[in-house]
Recover the amino acids of this structure.
């Protein structure tokens, strides 16, 4: 048995097998036996004393031998136990390291899987930023106007229906119910925007519109910039669901904004006043969004599309690619855009080309129309099939968010 095989049971068995050294004879009996066996030629005077001294060595030697065995066994047991403890500690460390590595790998795989699922869910390509009716299987569209400190930018969230049912209590919520449930849950600063929501005051629905009850000192009419930001946020948040928004004070009386522009007690959220074209808005953090140019409206889709190349301020940039010209023709609900020269989208920076295509689609959609592109070199590009009219978008600037 080698020393790695020692354990408590082996040690106990060994002790049981060890010889027991016991001698019950008296000193006289031992001496007499030695005399009888002829151990001495004669009996010396000090024989009894010498015999006593010699007899005392026997148990001493046996005790020393037993002690030596105990020391040997103990050292082997201690060594074996030490090795076992070291092995156990090493094994535990290795198991923890392996466990940590497996957890990290699983977390990475989970994150990667989630990211891949999210990307695939939004679109087949990461470049597209619009929302289409065909994407609403199993999700609910929630739109908001987020502020960059200067202007309100329309953004869109797709919330799984299970979460909507759990949070709102119904799987067919109104736009106001969605706002009151989820607006406060969105960390606007984490998305690169300013803190603006929820709106101050309260809302209630009335027929096809909503009423905003505002307290004194709300500050939304403190300046022309505040009014622009506020009205833009209302339009971007409630424009697709309600026809108008009215204002009243806490006493239920009509509320007039008497600061710059004399904003009346009623804002139309739909109709010809909400027919926009879309430009590129670059936020302070350098990111780009498609947005109406100060919500300037147009009477015809041709006018709105042709105006997309005109930059009238420093905030909104044209979405039209450099040196690209086109003509428009409207027939029923289809707008045909024909480029003067064959347009090779691969010759441009992909996100810039995408902003032009999507900006045109949003502009036509604000007039409830689709677009058919002509003279594009690619028949299929980044998820678009240019051989037929493209699907009409229903919202801009999709933002991925975990509710």
């Amino acid at each position: 048995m080698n020393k790695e095989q020692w354990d408590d049971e082996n040690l106990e068995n060994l002790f049981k097998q060890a010889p027991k050294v016991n001698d019950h004879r008296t000193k006289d009996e031992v001496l007499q036996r030695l005399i009888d066996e002829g151990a001495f030629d004669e009996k010396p005077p000090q024989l009894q004393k010498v015999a006593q001294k010699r007899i005392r060595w026997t148990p001493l030697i046996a005790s020393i031998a037993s002690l030596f065995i105990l020391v040997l066994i103990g050292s082997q047991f201690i060594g074996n136990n030490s090795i076992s403890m070291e092995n156990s500690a090493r094994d535990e460390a290795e198991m923890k390291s392996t466990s940590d590595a497996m957890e990290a790998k699983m977390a990475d795989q989970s994150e990667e899987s989630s990211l891949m699922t999210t990307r695939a869910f939004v679109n087949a390509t990461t470049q597209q930023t619009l929302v289409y009716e065909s994407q609403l299987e199993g999700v609910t569209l929630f739109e908001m106007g987020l502020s960059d400190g200067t202007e309100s930018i329309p953004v869109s969230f797709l919330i799984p229906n299970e979460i909507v049912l759990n949070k709102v209590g119904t799987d067919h919520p109104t736009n106001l119910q969605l706002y009151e449930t989820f607006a406060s849950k969105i960390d606007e600063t984490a998305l690169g925007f300013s803190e603006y929501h929820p709106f101050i005051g309260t809302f209630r629905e009335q027929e096809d519109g909503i009423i905003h009850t505002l307290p004194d000192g709300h500050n939304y009419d403190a300046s022309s910039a505040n009014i622009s930001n506020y009205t833009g946020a209302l339009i971007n948040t409630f424009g697709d669901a309600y026809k108008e928004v009215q204002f009243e004070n806490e006493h239920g009386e009509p509320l007039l904004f008497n600061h710059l522009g004399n904003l009346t007690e009623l804002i139309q959220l739909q109709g010809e006043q909400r027919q926009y074209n879309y430009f590129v808005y670059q936020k302070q953090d350098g990111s780009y969004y498609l947005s109406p140019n100060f919500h300037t409206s147009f009477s015809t889709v041709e006018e709105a599309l042709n105006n997309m190349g005109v930059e009238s301020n420093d905030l909104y940039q044209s979405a039209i690619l450099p040196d690209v010209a086109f003509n428009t023709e409207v027939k029923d609900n289809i707008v045909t855009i024909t480029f003067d020269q064959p347009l090779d989208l691969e010759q441009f920076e992909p996100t810039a080309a995408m902003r032009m295509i999507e900006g045109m689609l949003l502009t036509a959609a604000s007039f409830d129309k689709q677009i058919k592109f002509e003279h594009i070199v690619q028949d299929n590009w980044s998820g678009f099939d240019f051989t037929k009219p493209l699907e009409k978008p229903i919202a801009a600037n999709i933002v991925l968010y975990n509710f």
In short: DSSP finds eight helices and 16 strands in the chain. Residues 1-5, 45-58, 77-85, 105-126 have pLDDT under 50 and may be disordered. The first strand starts at residue 131 and ends at 132.
